[in-house]
Design the sequence.
């Protein structure tokens, strides 16, 4: 389906390649250095089913002309080339744009400079190629800044940009490409850049040699005299975090130049169009479709750069909180939202979890509500899949959902045992397993918080099922912590005392009729109210646990007491177990 | 704010105002709201709570008010949510300055020709989405309270239903910060004063604390409480009379309430006046009348 045609851009012949139906939404892909249009081929083929994809060899590369003069490689020329290419293929229609490496650097010119293209570009996906003007401002700000960390950032970038200095050396740089570097290049891509099967490029020597002009024609004056350049369209910034040439630090001020900026990190090297074509194609498609529809996907909403929240400790993190419709879960959701995280609020009660999400949004977070029965393996699996697909995974899991149940081992029917273990234990097992698996597979550091209880340490004849479920949650957390330590995933068990939440008024009293139960509930609720121990305090402990990763967090005097009794005075703890503690 | 004089307490259970008296109360309440709206329009960044309280007082004096149930109040910023309030003096106006996008609450209680009003007016200087949300959600409380009182439910249960709704909404019941955690208090006719009464917030505060003690005694004797809360003291059927109802909702340092008079008769109840700022706001936003009153099992 590829078509190739040569067009004229003010006397320079450019080779243009298109994929797919020209009536569909056009996307232009601009390649970098020392590549030609072929670097985009795997991505273009994937995009072509739904879009009209246009690539071309930029001047100096591939089958396009290579003007001799250095001044022919200035930004304005490169931008005029892009205009000639799109005009020849789609007339004056608007289009979406993506660039990699130098293709990205030069596309910034079209995206930000006041010119005929700025208004026609609907969206721009930039990969590993900063705007040189932005870079000039970035450098200026940090060189004038006397702090050691600012200096260190400049130094770090200078180290990875050694080749730019090299390219400014006369004779040597161009001749290196013809003296054998072109033959070695596929090996370099394979070993240094993790591109699995790099295809030899027939014009590699030419691409390398002429492309050096790009650096020579633009770097010096742009870095010394940067303009103030603002983008008009939404910009998706894709950052390969193991990029050997373009440091992530270069993008930290980008939001000052782009109003609607989305940033997505990819754990990869510089040549992502070759090494991760599926991901890159999917992300470009998702972004283009979001702009076309006027509504971004969940993952992009999460990826939106929000400068006002950047300083918050959990900025950029996604947290899943179960039992978020009330009590500790709801308080935790608010606390994490205030700390900068985005939230997936999970509860079996749809209205109340939607409400939690809504209020979390008022606190500045992106928040989604999901109705899920945590005791159901399928439902939890669907949740985990949804989080991975829509939001790209989670960083913090709070397995909090739980129910109360009072009664002895003998009074508790099999169904009741089943019911409480499903929610209190299986809910935590599902949440821990599914999300820990995702984190491990994606090499994502994270944190799993399991809400147990002071009852985990306190045996009592009238709280058998509840205490058993919570003791199991505690042990599960300790084991999981050992297992996940090597993966940089923290695990904490939170053990609160009697917190005033809905749990007391929903507790099941086994072996009693409804009326007796209601009376017990009212009494218990009154006691909880009098204790006046708010879920806020547990939420504080959870936020602290996310930041410091303790194995166990005891919250409230009851928790400390039961813990100390069970450790240092087990005999006394067993005496207490014989007392009926229900009201 | 619930400030009562024991000597103004009705001797019998309840108080049934005449139509003429109701007009007097309505006029007083309209004037109180007009004062709050006029002062709210004057608020500027940098103004203090004390200034805002004084402006209300001056405005009301200029409009013929000589007596007060309590001195005007003003709360700015997180003080609208009574954040960290432990003792009664913390309610008094401070030198907290108003800033852009900061919520505020004005509260005044003038006595006009012997008719008492006690109103609360919440707003923001600029924009505050959390405040908007709370103001919107207060509509459900106004509908809920009236519906349950009309059903003749015990006043304690009505207060508990309000607590439950606030919890469901995800907010905190900040009226619990008031002494005796009151949701409302009774308001009666007062003897018009010969000489204007001075408003000294601190003295009012002391008077108020003294009054509360006496009120509690009187109420116990009569078997009902003029202080309406979720406690056992309010576990009695609705008492006829005029009640200044003030559900106060807080969320993460932003607080808002309405306060206005509810009329309870022997067999019915209604809000004294619907032509007041927060109801007008709800009507504009299509939130009033409330279509589906959230009873939550009450």
Sequence:
């Amino acid at each position: 389906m590829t078509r190739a045609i040569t067009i004229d851009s003010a006397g320079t012949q450019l080779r243009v390649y298109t994929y797919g139906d020209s009536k569909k939404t056009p996307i232009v892909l601009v390649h970098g250095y020392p590549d030609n249009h072929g670097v985009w081929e795997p991505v273009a083929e994937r995009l072509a089913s739904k879009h009209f994809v246009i690539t071309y060899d930029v001047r100096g590369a591939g089958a396009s002309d290579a003007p001799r003069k250095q001044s022919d490689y200035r930004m304005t020329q490169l931008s005029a080339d892009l205009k000639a290419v799109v005009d020849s293929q789609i007339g004056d229609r608007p289009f979406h744009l993506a660039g990699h490496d130098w293709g990205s650097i030069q596309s910034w010119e079209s995206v930000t400079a006041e010119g005929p293209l700025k208004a026609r570009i609907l969206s721009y996906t930039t990969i590993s190629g900063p705007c040189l003007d932005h870079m000039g401002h970035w450098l200026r700000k940090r060189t004038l800044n006397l702090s050691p960390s600012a200096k260190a950032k400049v130094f770090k970038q200078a180290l990875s940009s050694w080749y730019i200095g090299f390219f400014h050396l006369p004779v040597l740089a161009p001749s290196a490409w013809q003296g054998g570097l072109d033959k070695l290049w596929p090996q370099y891509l394979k070993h240094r850049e993790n591109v699995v099967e790099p295809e030899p490029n027939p014009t590699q020597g030419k691409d390398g040699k002429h492309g050096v002009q790009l650096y020579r024609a633009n770097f010096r004056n742009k870095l010394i005299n940067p303009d103030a350049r603002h983008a008009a369209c939404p910009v998706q910034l894709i950052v390969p975090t193991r990029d050997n040439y373009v440091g992530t630090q270069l993008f930290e001020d980008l939001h000052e130049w782009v109003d609607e900026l989305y940033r997505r990190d990819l754990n990869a090297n510089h040549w992502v169009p070759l090494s991760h074509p599926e991901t890159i194609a999917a992300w470009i498609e998702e972004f283009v479709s979001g702009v076309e529809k006027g509504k971004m996907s969940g993952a992009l909403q999460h990826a939106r750069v929000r400068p006002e929240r950047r300083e918050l400790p959990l900025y950029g993190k996604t947290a899943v909180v179960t039992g978020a419709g009330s009590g500790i879960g709801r308080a935790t959701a608010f606390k994490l939202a205030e700390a900068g995280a985005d939230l997936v609020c999970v509860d079996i009660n749809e209205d109340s979890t939607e409400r939690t999400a809504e209020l979390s949004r008022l606190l500045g977070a992106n928040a989604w509500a999901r109705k899920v029965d945590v005791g159901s393996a399928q439902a939890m699996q669907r949740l985990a899949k949804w989080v991975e697909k829509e939001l790209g995974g989670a960083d913090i899991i709070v397995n909090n959902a739980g129910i109360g149940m009072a009664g002895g081992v003998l009074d508790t029917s099999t169904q009741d045992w089943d019911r409480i273990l499903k929610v209190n234990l299986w809910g935590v097992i599902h949440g821990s397993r599914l999300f820990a698996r995702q984190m491990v597979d994606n090499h994502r550091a994270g944190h799993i918080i399991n809400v147990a209880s002071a009852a985990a340490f306190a045996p009592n004849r009238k709280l058998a099922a509840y205490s058993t479920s919570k003791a199991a949650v505690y042990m599960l957390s300790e084991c999981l912590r050992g297992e996940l330590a090597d993966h940089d995933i923290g695990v904490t068990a939170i053990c609160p005392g009697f917190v005033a939440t809905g749990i007391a008024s929903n507790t099941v009293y086994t072996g009693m009729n409804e009326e007796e139960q209601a009376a017990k509930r009212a009494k218990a609720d009154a006691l909880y109210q009098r204790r006046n121990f708010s879920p806020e305090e547990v939420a504080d402990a959870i936020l602290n646990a996310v930041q410091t990763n303790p194995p166990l967090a005891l919250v409230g005097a009851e928790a400390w007491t039961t813990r100390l009794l069970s450790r240092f005075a087990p005999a006394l703890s067993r005496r207490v177990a014989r007392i009926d503690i229900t009201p | 704010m619930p400030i009562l004089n024991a000597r103004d307490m009705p001797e019998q259970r309840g108080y049934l105002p005449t139509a003429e008296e109701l007009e007097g109360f309505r006029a007083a309440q309209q004037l109180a709201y007009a004062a709050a709206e006029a002062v709210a329009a004057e608020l500027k960044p940098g103004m203090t709570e004390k200034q805002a309280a004084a402006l209300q007082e001056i405005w009301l004096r200029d409009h013929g008010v000589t007596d007060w149930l309590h001195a005007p109040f003003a709360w700015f910023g997180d003080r609208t949510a009574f954040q960290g309030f432990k003792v009664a003096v913390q309610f008094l106006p401070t030198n907290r300055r108003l800033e852009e996008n900061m919520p505020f609450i004005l509260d005044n209680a003038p006595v006009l020709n012997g008719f008492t009003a006690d109103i609360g007016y919440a707003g923001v200087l600029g924009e505050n989405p959390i405040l908007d949300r709370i103001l919107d959600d207060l509509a459900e409380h106004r509908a809920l309270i009236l519906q349950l009182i009309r059903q003749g439910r015990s006043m304690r249960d009505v207060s508990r239903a309000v607590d439950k709704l606030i919890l469901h909404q995800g907010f905190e019941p900040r009226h619990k910060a008031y002494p005796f955690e009151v949701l409302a208090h009774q308001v009666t006719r007062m003897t018009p004063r010969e000489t204007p009464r001075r408003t000294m917030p601190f003295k009012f505060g002391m008077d108020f604390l003294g009054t509360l003690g006496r009120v509690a005694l009187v109420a116990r004797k009569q078997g009902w409480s003029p202080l309406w809360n979720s406690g056992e003291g309010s576990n009695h059927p609705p008492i006829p009379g005029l009640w200044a109802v003030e559900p106060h909702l807080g969320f993460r340092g932003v607080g808002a309430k309405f306060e206005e008079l509810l009329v309870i008769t022997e067999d019915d109840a209604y809000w004294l006046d619907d032509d007041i700022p927060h109801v007008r706001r709800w009507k504009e936003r299509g939130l009033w009348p409330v279509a589906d009153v959230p009873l939550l099992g009450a």
About this structure: The interface with chain B takes residues 326, 330, 334, 338, 352, 355-356, 358-359, 362-363, 502 of chain A (CB under 8 Å). The first helix of chain A runs from residue 41 to 47. Residues 405 and 508 of chain A are 5 Å apart (CA to CA).
